[in-house]
Amino acid sequence: MDIRKIDDRLSVAPQIAIADLERLKQAGFRAVICNRPDGEAPDQPSFEEMRQAAEKAGIEIRHQPVTSGKVTDEDAQAFARLMAELPGPVLAYCRTGTRSATLWALSQAGKRPLTEILATAKAAGYDLSAVARRIANRGRTPEDATDAHHAVVIVGGGAAGIATAASLKKRKPDLDVAIIEPSDVHYYQPGWTLVGGGVFRPEQTAHLEARLIPDGVKWIKAAVVAFEPERNAVILEGCRVVTYDRLVVCPGLKLDWGAIEGLEATLGKNGVTSNYRYDLAPYTWELVQGLKRGRAIFTQPPMPIKCAGAPQKAMYLSADHWYRTGVLKDIEVNFNNAGGVLFGVKDYVPALMEYVKKYDARLNFFHNLVAVDGPARKAIFEVKEPEKEPRRVEMEFDMMHVCPPQTAPDFIRVSPLADAAGWVDVDQSTLRHKRFDNIWSLGDVMNAPNAKTAAAARKQAPVVAANIVADIEGRAPVADYDGYGSCPLTVERGKIVLAEFGYGGVLKPSFPKVLLDGTRPSRLAWMLKEKILPPIYWHAMLKGREWLAEPEPHKIAAE
Q1: Engineering a disulfide at 80: which of 91, 107, 155, 524 sits with its beta carbon 3.0 to 4.6 angstroms away?
Q2: Can 250 be counted among the known catalytic residues?
Q3: pTM of the model
């Protein structure tokens, strides 16, 4: 038997045999639902045969035959009634289990979030994206097929989405483009490190979304809940449907605060902060100014994360303030990293290690934060060192800066667009989806092996725009992304190690070495971070001005 658990009350399975009923009884099942009509296959036991065997085994059984591919709204309601009547746990079966899983999913519509329903089914081995629209419509078949249609639909109005829309309109001004984005406020997230270091004010990093949408681009203010790529459709909350000729997916990633036990309850108090949130970055600076002695912990979760250098940027700026104010000697600085290296590109590590030594910071590798007791000011780390048994260690703290675990958004992870790890599956050069030719993805949500930074999105947007325009004109891809990412590592107030690299850790400096050596701390790099990059973001990247971001020619096209 191939039993696939849905929840504590229901499991589903492909066709079971008569002899399996006794085994089900022994396994603790109290009821069975057969969702397969009699006579679908010559080797299929009839329901009457199954009923007799179930009676002999002392297990209840019901017959709710559903034709393959034709699960009606009434079928789902009938399944819900059966589940309410029968004692659990229940096993439902059909030829493959898909009908039974679909009936369960539709019966849960309106009772659980759509993403939770799809994720539960996917974990059991069933892709129910084909009925996502019905689930979003509270289990009922929608009457209206489409609410809107656009030539290009962009999911996500962050840095990647707006930059792509601007680059598209620059190349093809009359192109019909729409951005789907639920947020009213757009944030310059690279600035939050400087907010946490007392350099920027929070309001410097926020603009109204409406003022950033490029001219001529339609803003659909809604949240996406699912995709139907075979039908060129995006499903919005409330079961609104937007169809497209071409789709760009760039909603960013999910900061999974809830993955660390006790963290959400103590964020913003008890000395626990994070520069990964707009409202918490000012608390970081408050804590840094207030700490005169004790232990400070800075955490980094397993990769991938948004801006891999940000956790240690917070450490360097904090320690620099304590160094300048003469209290560092009384503060124990700890960098607890779930990984095994300080930074993934080795060329920048020597310069960083000089500052680790300057601040007398303790590097605790393979330490992953799993729980926080805020009132007690205690943190629990799971330590998984190579060739050693995993263990847990408890550390007290006076201040802790947390970088949360990060995943693709739920509606991405359960969609047909995702790879096995949940990220949008793209060709790393053209950024085109590997299975759906009219879909592209960029930014933090896709699975190319590059650093997840705003600088990466700045390079990716022109590549996606150029390739979409080429596709519209019937041409092959014309542009490639080389994996470029940039991480300005703020090692002290006034100096930065400007890490710029591409796929495989290959260095990709934007300036001649005589002007700016990215492997060494530089005041020029600090000026770039503080004074030049924010205006470039607001007034160039988001406006389709591709300064130092022109796409490279596609390798095949170049040949």
Answers
A1: 107
A2: no
A3: 0.88
Residues 6 or more apart from 279 whose CB is under 8 A from it? 202, 268
| Selected catalytic residue, list 34, 250, 403, 487 | 487
Fold of 4-136: Protein-Tyrosine Phosphatase; Chain A (3.90.190)
Cβ atoms of 241 and 234 within 8 Å: the answer is: yes
Name the DSSP letter for residue 347.
G
Given 94, 239, 307, 403, which residue is catalytic?
Answer: 307
DSSP code, position 528: I
pLDDT tens, position by position, 79-129: 999 999 999 899 999 999 999 999 999 999 989 899 999 999 999 999 888
pLDDT higher than 80, residue 557:
no
* Cα–Cα dist 374/377, whole Å: 5
**257-406 shares the fold of 149-253+408-558:** yes
Q: DSSP of 471-518, one letter per residue? A: HHTT----EE----EEEEEEEETTEEEEEEE-GGG-B--SS-TTT--T
The string of pLDDT tens digits covering residues 173-193 is: 999 999 999 999 999 999 999
Kindly list the domain boundaries of the chain, sorted by start residue.
4-136, 149-253+408-558, 257-406
* Whether 487 is catalytic: yes
Tens digit of pLDDT for each residue in 238-255?
Answer: 788 999 999 999 999 999
Q: Contact at 8 Å (CB) between 395 and 237?
A: no
Does CATH number 3.40.50.880 belong to domain 257-406? no
Letter for the amino acid at 256?
D
Tokens 């050693």 appear where? Answer: 388
